[in-house]
Structures are given as C-alpha cells and as structure tokens.
Write a sequence for this structure.
C-alpha cells in the first residue's frame, strides 16, 4: 500500500515531476557523453601508441634506452626470435634496426631516426602500409627505397621518386651514408612520429653500416591473455625476461610511455569527479522538489498521523517517492545516454579542425565515445544513492511536526 501510494503521490504534480525528470535525463546524458568522450580520447591515444610505436612490449638492449647507440643492439637476436615463435602468448612480432641520422635533399636537411624494417612482416604488423598517401609500400624492388612522412616531404620538398641522402655513424664511429629514392609518403595520427622517423628496408641499412643485427623486437600480445590488461602484459614481460640474455630487457608499453599510462590511470578518477559533481547538483534539485511536495501536503500528513499512521510509515512514504523519482530519472537517463552513445559510435565525433593539436598526442581526428556496462551501472547506483540521501531532510522536516500543528498548517 505504501509503495502504491508513493507512486501516485509522485505524479500528483505532473509538471513539477516532469521538469525534474527532464533535468535528470538531460544532465545524465551530458555527463555520460562527456565520460564517453574522455574514455574514447584516452583509448584512442593508447591504441595508436600501441599500433604505431610501442606495440604491447619491446625487447631492447638495456643501454639502448639510455643512449640509442648503433652498437647497443639486441644480443642473441636469432635465439630470441625462435623463442618468440614458440611463445603462445605472443600474437606476432617484428624486428627493427634503429639508428639516428640526417636526411638531406637538394633543398634542406633534417635529423631523423632511421627505422629499418622487414617490409613483409611490418606490412602486417603496423597500420602504416594502409596510410600511404602517395606512392606505395615497400615491394622488394628498387635500390634503397625509403618512406617519408608528409610533413618531412613538405619541408624537404620531396615527392615520390625524389632522391635523398641518409648520413649516419657506423659501428666504428665513422660517418657513412647512401642515397635513397622516395618510394612512398605516409601520414599517421602522431605528429612526433611523422616528424622524427623515416622507414627503409632493414637489409639496406644493415649492409650500409655492415652490422647484421637489430635494435628492437616489437611484440603484440595475443588477445586471449588480455592484450590491453596491465597485469597480463606484465606477466608476459616476466616470461620473456626469464629467457633473455642479461644484456637485454623486455618492457611493456606503459613503461615505455609512462605519461600515457598516467593519463589512463587518472581517467577513472576524473570520470568519478564529473559524476560526483552532477550527482551532488542533482541531489540539491531533488531536495528542493521533495521539500515543495512535502510542505504542500503538511495537512495531509497531519491527518495521517492523527488517525494513527506510524511516523516510520510516513517516513517510508517519502523515501519511496524520492526513490521512484530517482529510479525513473536514472532509467530514462541511462536509456538516453545509451542512445546518444550508440549514435556517436556510428557517426563518430569529428575533430578535424583541431587536427594539428590532436596530432601532438597521437589522436585521430574522428573519435568514438566509449562507455562500459560497469560505468552505466555505477551511474545508476549513484543516482539511486543520491535520491535516498536527498529524501532524508524533507522526511525529517515533516516528522518533526506534531499532528495538531500539521493539520492547522495552511499552504
């Protein structure tokens, strides 16, 4: 009976209840969309960093991370390659030759990192081969082909077929170099990657410096172990480090890019702060609505107390009214949020006008908001909790009234 009466009381003033529900739905939709946008932003940064640069983990010489010297190559690379092939938690891997040098054209010169890759493996390992905007990916033909970014091509006035000269220091400390021909021009979401890297065939750069070694093994973890899970990646890192020579070290992506890992770790906190601010504001709104509803029915509550209704039942009546308000608002708000996020996941949020700024952080110009089921549940629970707390003050105010005083109250 109390529950039925509470539901009817909620809709006594349909306009007031509808306005409060509208505010809750609008606010919840806005907050959840913002949470989804922030999740999508960080997830995109992490995904691009893993896909384009760090992979899930890397194996390098311990000295290489301190000083990217050409002689700080991976020890016993052949045995490591065999071990990786037999590691079930490794989805795929690629070995690279890395050396800093200079790239010069007839117009300008620029310092770059020269990345020597196996073109067949790398084409399937990173998305770079699908982001060639002019020319083509390596195909094993031609003498000394090179891939440069659009930014470097513009600065050095290069186009497909242009000749550039790469200059670097070999393992003996002597300056050496060779002429390369631009095979393709690429564009990635990361400005820093585009400005700082050129790609050549690994065999070409190895033959130039007479060093048949590699400086990095980039590894992608199998999805079965939870490729995005920090704990799963750390477990795989421990397994790989167990059989590496002492000169080498495997590191996870969040150790290679600690700033990005910190941003990801603080995202949950920032989302909870946004939700808390909304819930507090919503709680004051509910208190205001319930106070108005309770005080305009003071005489009614006085009559109920006079005829013998226990005060705890009146307390429950007010609590149920508030809970119903919060529950309906939470359900409608979550349904509205799911609809908005679903539409944005289909259309995406275009940020093309901010492409230069986003490129600094390696973010795509189209973002897709992401909200997990756990976050929807958390939103629902927080709204119900806020509704329950918000009902305490109005209920206490009416229970302080004596029946005679309450019946004599005039609205």
């Amino acid at each position: 009976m109390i529950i039925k009466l509470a539901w009817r009381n909620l809709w006594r003033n349909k306009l007031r209840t509808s306005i409060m529900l509208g505010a809750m739905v609008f606010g919840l939709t806005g907050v959840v969309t913002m949470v989804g946008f922030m999740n999508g932003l960080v997830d995109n940064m992490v995904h691009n960093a893993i896909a384009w640069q760090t992979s899930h983990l890397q194996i390098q010489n311990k000295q290489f991370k301190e000083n990217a010297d050409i002689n700080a190559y991976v020890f016993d690379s052949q045995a490591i390659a065999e071990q990786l092939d037999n590691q079930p938690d490794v989805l795929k891997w690629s070995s690279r030759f890395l050396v800093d040098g200079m790239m010069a054209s007839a117009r300008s010169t620029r310092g770059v990192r020269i990345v020597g890759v196996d073109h067949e493996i790398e084409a399937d390992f990173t998305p770079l081969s699908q982001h060639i905007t002019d020319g083509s990916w390596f195909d094993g033909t031609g003498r000394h082909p090179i891939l440069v970014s659009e930014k470097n091509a513009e600065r050095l006035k290069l186009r497909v077929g242009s000749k550039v000269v790469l200059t670097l220091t070999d393992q003996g400390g002597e300056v050496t170099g060779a002429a390369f021909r631009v095979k393709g021009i690429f564009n990635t979401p990361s400005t820093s990657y585009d400005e700082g890297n050129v790609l050549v065939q690994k065999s070409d750069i190895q033959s130039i410096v007479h060093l048949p070694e590699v400086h990095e093994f980039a590894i992608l973890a199998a999805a079965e172990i939870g490729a995005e899970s920090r704990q799963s990646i750390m477990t795989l890192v421990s397994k790989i480090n167990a059989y590496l020579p002492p000169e080498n070290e495997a590191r996870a992506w969040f150790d290679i890019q600690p700033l990005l890992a910190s941003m990801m770790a603080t995202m949950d906190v920032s989302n909870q702060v946004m939700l808390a601010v909304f819930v507090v504001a919503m709680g004051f709104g509910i208190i205001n609505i319930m106070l108005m509803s309770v005080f305009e029915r003071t005489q009614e509550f006085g009559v109920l107390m006079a005829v013998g209704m226990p005060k705890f039942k009146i307390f429950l009546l007010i609590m149920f009214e508030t809970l119903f308000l919060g529950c309906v608002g939470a359900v409608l708000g979550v349904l509205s949020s799911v609809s908005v996020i679903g539409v944005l996941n289909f259309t995406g949020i275009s940020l093309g006008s901010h492409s230069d700024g986003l490129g600094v952080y390696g973010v795509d110009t189209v973002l897709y908001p992401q909200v997990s089921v756990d976050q929807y549940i958390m939103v629902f629970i927080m709204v119900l909790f806020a509704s329950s707390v918000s009902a305490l003050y109005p209920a206490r105010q009416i229970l302080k009234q004596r029946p005679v005083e309450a019946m004599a109250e005039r609205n």
